[in-house]
Design brief:
The protein contains 13 helices and twelve strands. It is an alpha+beta fold. The chain has two domains: 2-52 and 275-413, no CATH class; 105-229, no CATH class. Helix 1 (2-16) crosses helix 11, helix 2 (18-55) crosses helix 11 (327-368) and helix 11 packs antiparallel against helix 12.
Length: 415
């Protein structure tokens, strides 16, 4: 009955001081909302990227120059390492070296603007084999045709462009057959891609320009090496063996005996999934930890308000003690008030967190033109409730203890 009576008094107090109660739990509300929102977005991003990687197929392998990156800061350096050249491609194509290789193409990245007439646009320019757009992403030209292997061998000045590129440079005019300028070289538009938006988290097909990698090397970049090599195995089961064949072939070609000295690294779809899961997991934990700081701030706010409440109720405490209330009764009363306030903040935070997560999934889907899944983590909800209650208990102990130790005579004299 004492606990029930304490709950009743606490609820009456919250109703009486609605504004103060709301401001008291605001820090808890913000903290719980942030945690749920961050974990939801993190899971949505992880799900999206994993689906994209899985969509590439289990028989997809990527070979990159340089050492295996240990973090995001290592990624850019591989663009300038020349360990993958034409001789490496020819060695990998040799069936005696890699019998399970079904197809291979190198790629280079071009950081330049594209112009036509007086219009200038900066898209994503890729020196590649255009046919791999259909192999990897099932994208086919809306108009025209992809350039061929003969165009690649002949260093042809041809280009495939996305819808956004077409609109920015040509507007409503016909683009097929026209010539666009990249750096000081003119490229004839041989194909226009359909409007697809994001092929992946990193590639927006509408802002894409694909030119032969040989042409990009010779006329744009002035390099003789590749920044990526994409390989397809004959089937998924053959991938592990093919990966070992690739490593042995490149080590033999580069006179490398110790795998620690590798100047290349091979990534499979499974490796990508593991790496993505690890990175998104770390980022989610990091951001959640930062958001959780607001819970501590909210807890301090609750403790301060509870101290004010103890002061305000000094005479009430004295009267209750004079009528026979024990220290434990006073302690329980103020602890319940603190826990109820934080639990209330937790419930509001959970409702807002779920609502904002749903809105975020809608906005991201619309703005990025992708399917961003709305995901809510039950552990995040339980974490919110648990942390809110824990904060209320921890930060409510000191004010409750202070109230329980008050002398009934001094409390009754308090004005």
């Amino acid at each position: 009955m004492r606990i029930r009576y304490a709950f009743k008094n606490v609820l009456i107090g919250i109703k009486t001081n609605k504004s103060r109660s709301f401001l008291t739990v605001l820090g808890i509300v913000i903290g719980i909302t942030s945690i749920i929102l961050i974990m939801s977005i993190g899971q949505g991003a992880k799900s999206l990227i994993l689906k994209e990687v899985e969509g590439l197929g289990g028989n997809f392998v990527q070979v990159s120059p340089g050492k295996q990156p240990q973090g995001p800061q290592d990624m850019g350096g591989s663009l300038f390492i020349d360990s993958l050249k034409e001789r490496e491609i020819n060695a990998l194509k040799n069936k005696n070296n890699v019998p399970d290789l079904a197809d291979i193409t190198p790629a280079v990245i071009v950081s330049e603007s594209v112009s036509y007439g007086g219009e200038i646009y900066r898209p994503t320019i890729f020196g590649w084999s255009a046919s791999w757009l259909s192999k990897l992403y099932n994208v086919y030209p809306e108009k025209g045709q992809y350039f061929t292997e003969d165009d690649i061998k002949g260093h042809a000045a041809v280009a495939v462009i996305g819808q956004k590129v077409k609109e920015e440079l040509f507007g409503t005019s016909e683009a097929l057959g026209e010539k666009i300028k990249i750096k000081d070289k003119y490229f004839r538009v041989v194909a226009i891609l359909p409007s697809k938006g994001q092929l992946s988290s990193f590639i927006d097909v509408d802002k894409f320009v694909v030119i032969p990698y040989t042409t990009a090397q010779k006329y744009i970049l002035g390099i003789d090496y590749y920044q990526e090599v994409y390989i397809m195995a004959t089937n998924e089961a053959a991938v592990p063996g093919m990966v070992e064949d690739i490593k042995l072939t490149l080590r033999d070609l580069h006179n490398i005996e110790d795998p620690k000295d590798d100047d290349f690294y091979v990534t499979t779809s499974e490796d990508m999934i593991e790496t993505i899961s690890l990175i998104t997991g770390i980022l989610t934990v990091l951001l959640t930890s930062i958001a959780a700081i607001s819970l501590i701030v909210g807890g301090v706010g609750i403790m301060n308000i509870m101290l004010v409440a103890v002061t305000e109720k000094t005479r009430e405490i004295g009267l209750r003690k004079a009528l026979g209330a024990k220290k434990r009764d006073i302690l329980i009363h103020f602890l319940i008030e603190s826990i109820v306030l934080t639990a209330l903040g937790g419930i509001i935070g959970i409702i807002l967190g779920i609502s904002f997560s749903y809105l975020a999934s809608l906005v991201l889907s619309q703005q990025l033109n992708i399917v961003w899944e709305f995901k809510i983590s039950l552990p995040a909800i339980f974490l919110g409730i648990g942390v809110a209650s824990f904060v209320g208990l921890v930060f409510g102990i000191y004010p409750a203890k202070k109230a329980s130790l008050k002398s009934p005579i001094e409390a009754l004299r308090y004005e």
